[in-house]
């Protein structure tokens, strides 16, 4: 499933296994970083090990592994560097960040984001994330977002009673005393589900059938 | 023996309670679902569902989580057979002969064999856990900190040997994992370690955050790189129950697979993953006509399937008796137990017999349920495969975010799953496996604690690890298998087992 393991075709110059060379350098970097990060900690003695001893020796160990890998990059033939995509990681990170800073008020260097709750953060994350793939369609993603968020609101907020903010803080303040939070939640979830159904009908009308993309051969454990 | 029966009786009385049966069913159903869907595995799912179990009583919570775990092992084979897509890592080998059988119009028999073999293996594993539980718990009581430390070193050594690919990379991953575990407040001195002044790192990295990043988000990123278009055709499934000739062929393979899987599953260091591969290799080696394999040999389905299910269940043994999680899923179970105030280890059996025996009994009930719910629902599972990945991954992402947020109500946790997701993506791209990292992380905190405690007890004499016989033996095993893994001939053998798929 990977690129051919013998990098014979891509051998250039002294580096015979670019993948393990770069991986090794990365580990060396992590090891050096770990040594630096734990340098202010007390190593203690064998009788009373201090907090710094394990991190120090672990970092050294990581560094040694890195060194060995890097050297192997020159002495053994190995895999070439794999291609990286930029779109997926960037968009997915954005989606995760969008969720994290909108779910509840978040202080970021003097700026406080408004807490918008699951009702905004959920659809936001889904729609943004959808664009990580190349065949994103806005309406489809919006439909998914409406259904899933409504479902999550009912499951996490109503059924399980978890302390996850559902509505924007402003709405919660405005509605206090007007409507019980749970009723509001159910109404909102119902409205979202109906809107989702409506969107589904609209798309059905202009629907077309296409082959399905499937994640392949995933080694999920 | 009468003890065992009484204990099992207690277990069944707990597991057969209405709520627990319902939770077991739910767990099995969710497990099968994620087992069927490629792209989301049990680790990410259990991490996502942890918050859901907060409101349940601990027995019910663990019964449900366990159901998800072995349900996923079960479900993975369905898609492996029908559409040649392994739902989980452990069903990779099932695609070889299972899908061939399906192509020959024997899909139903392959499914039936897989289900019956898994059920048999599950039954044996349940009995094994029940039988081994008490003696191992007694053994655990004579374990001091030095022995625990040695045991964990051995577990990590096994994890290195059992990981795919380069030994060096696996060692590096474990060290990185243990290093990550050191982040946060030092338990003994209260000093902050490697937190760089970030308050969200004071308590260290939450295990479910790391697991969800490395296995939930990174998996999405990797799948985005390599989705392929594929028409999910619905094959004729045909008769489900294997005939007499099939049973004759499959039965010995099932027995061997169960034995292999059960033994490998007990090993600390995620042996369960190796089970199906080893079982397949052995079946092929001892077969009169090895050429049949890869062309729809029924032993190639029965052996690995039973091994995979047996291993999934015996993996609970080290957790329940010694308190050491042998793999990442078990580590999440530790998380679930700690949330409910239960310390995993030898104390579980004596202090919470309801939990211990209830969980064991529920596994057998769960296996029975899987047998019953799985076969008639095959059509539904296959239809699920038609959900396109472009809709699945945004959903996974949101469930991950919601799930992780509701554990600690910290937006920084959500950001961290993004960070670890990126890290996991990089690791995969550079040929590192994230599983050993996670295991190192899980055992890291415990290891440091036991190391420091045993050295304090021995007044700083490191020889304590070799002077105590049990710990010395464990250390010798650890070094022996590590050395063996580095030997070129054995390495080749190991690679063969894994590349069989």
UniProtKB/TrEMBL annotation, chain A:
Q: Which UniProt key words apply to this protein?
A: Membrane, Transmembrane, Transmembrane helix
Instruction: Look up keyword Transmembrane and say if it applies.
Output: yes
Where would you find the membrane-spanning parts of this chain?
Answer: 21-39, 54-74, 86-107, 113-134, 141-164, 184-202
Offer one Pfam family short name for this entry: TctB
Q: Any keyword Kinase?
A: no
What are the DUF1468 domain coordinates in residue numbering? 22-165
Q: From the Swiss-Prot or TrEMBL record, give the protein name.
A: DUF1468 domain-containing protein
TrEMBL record, chain B:
Residues annotated as domain DUF112 = 21-439
Its keywords, alphabetically, are: Membrane, Transmembrane, Transmembrane helix
What are the transmembrane regions? 12-37, 49-72, 109-132, 139-161, 167-184, 196-218, 259-282, 319-343, 355-382, 389-408, 414-444, 465-487
Recorded protein name is DUF112 domain-containing protein
Q: Which InterPro entries match?
A: DUF112_TM
Could you tell me the superkingdom of the organism this chain comes from? Bacteria
């Amino acid at each position: 499933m990977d690129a051919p393991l013998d990098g014979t075709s891509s051998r250039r110059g002294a580096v015979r296994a670019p993948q393990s060379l770069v991986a090794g350098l990365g580990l060396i970097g992590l090891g050096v970083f770990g040594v630096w990060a734990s340098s202010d900690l007390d190593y203690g003695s064998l009788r009373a090990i201090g907090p710094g001893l394990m991190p120090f020796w672990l970092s050294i160990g990581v560094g040694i592994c890195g060194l060995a890998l890097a050297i192997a990059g020159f002495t053994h033939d190995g895999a070439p560097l794999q291609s990286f995509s930029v779109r997926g990681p960037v968009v997915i990170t954005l989606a995760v960040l969008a969720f994290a800073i909108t779910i509840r008020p978040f202080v970021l260097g003097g700026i406080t984001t408004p807490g918008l709750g699951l009702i905004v953060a959920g659809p936001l994350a889904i729609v943004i994330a959808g664009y990580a793939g190349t065949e994103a369609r806005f309406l489809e993603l919006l439909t998914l977002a409406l259904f899933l968020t409504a479902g999550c609101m009912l499951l996490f907020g109503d059924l399980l009673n978890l302390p996850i903010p559902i509505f924007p803080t402003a709405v919660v303040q405005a509605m206090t005393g007007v409507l019980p939070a749970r009723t509001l939640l159910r109404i909102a979830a119902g409205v979202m589900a109906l809107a989702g159904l409506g969107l589904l009908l609209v798309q059905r009308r202009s629907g077309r059938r296409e082959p399905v993309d499937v994640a392949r051969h995933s080694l999920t454990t | 023996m009468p003890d065992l029966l009484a204990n099992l009786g207690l277990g069944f009385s707990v597991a057969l309670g209405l709520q627990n049966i319902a939770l077991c069913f739910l767990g099995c159903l969710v497990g099968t679902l994620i087992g069927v869907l490629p792209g989301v595995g049990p680790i990410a799912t259990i991490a996502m569902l942890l918050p859901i179990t907060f409101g349940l009583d601990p027995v019910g919570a663990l019964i449900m989580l366990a159901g998800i775990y072995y349900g996923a092992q079960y479900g993975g084979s369905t898609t492996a057979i029908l559409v040649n897509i392994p739902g989980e890592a452990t069903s990779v080998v099932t695609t070889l002969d299972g899908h061939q059988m399906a192509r020959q119009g024997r899909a139903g028999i392959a499914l039936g064999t897989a289900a019956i073999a898994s059920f048999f293996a599950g039954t044996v594993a349940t009995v094994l856990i029940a039988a081994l539980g008490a003696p191992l718990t007694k053994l655990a009581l004579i374990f001091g900190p030095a022995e625990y430390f040695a045991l964990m070193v051995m577990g990590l050594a096994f994890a290195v040997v059992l990981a795919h690919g380069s030994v060096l990379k696996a060692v590096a991953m474990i060290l990185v994992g243990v290093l990550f575990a050191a982040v946060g407040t030092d338990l003994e001195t209260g000093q902050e370690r490697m937190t760089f002044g970030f308050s969200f790192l004071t308590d260290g990295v939450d295990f479910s955050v790391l697991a969800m990043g490395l296995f939930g988000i990174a998996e999405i990123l990797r799948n985005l790189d390599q989705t392929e278009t594929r028409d999910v055709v619905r094959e004729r499934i045909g008769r489900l129950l294997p005939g007499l000739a099939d049973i004759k062929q499959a039965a010995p393979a099932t027995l061997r697979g169960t034995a292999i899987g059960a033994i490998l599953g007990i090993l600390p260091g995620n042996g369960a993953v190796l089970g199906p591969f080893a079982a397949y290799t052995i079946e092929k080696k001892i077969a009169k006509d090895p050429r049949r394999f890869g062309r729809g040999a029924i032993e190639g389905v029965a052996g690995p399937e039973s091994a995979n299910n047996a291993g999934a269940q015996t993996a609970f043994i080290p957790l329940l008796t010694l308190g050491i999680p042998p793999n990442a899923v078990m580590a999440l179970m530790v998380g679930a137990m700690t949330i409910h105030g239960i310390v995993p280890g030898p104390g579980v059996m004596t202090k919470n017999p309801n939990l211990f025996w209830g969980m064991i009994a529920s596994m057998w009930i769960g296996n029975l349920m899987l047998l019953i719910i799985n076969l008639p629902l095959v059509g539904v599972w296959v239809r699920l495969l038609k959900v396109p990945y472009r809709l699945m991954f945004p959903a996974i992402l949101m469930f991950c975010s919601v799930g992780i947020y509701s554990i600690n109500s910290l937006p920084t946790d959500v950001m961290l799953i993004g960070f670890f997701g990126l890290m996991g993506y990089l690791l995969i791209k550079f040929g590192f496996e994230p599983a050993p990292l996670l295991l190192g992380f899980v055992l890291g905190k415990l290891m440091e604690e036991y190391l420091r405690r045993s050295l304090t007890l021995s007044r700083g004499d490191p020889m304590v690890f070799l002077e105590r016989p049990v710990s010395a033996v464990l250390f010798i095993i650890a070094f022996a298998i590590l050395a063996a893994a580095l030997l070129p001939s054995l390495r080749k053998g190991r690679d063969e087992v894994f590349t069989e798929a």
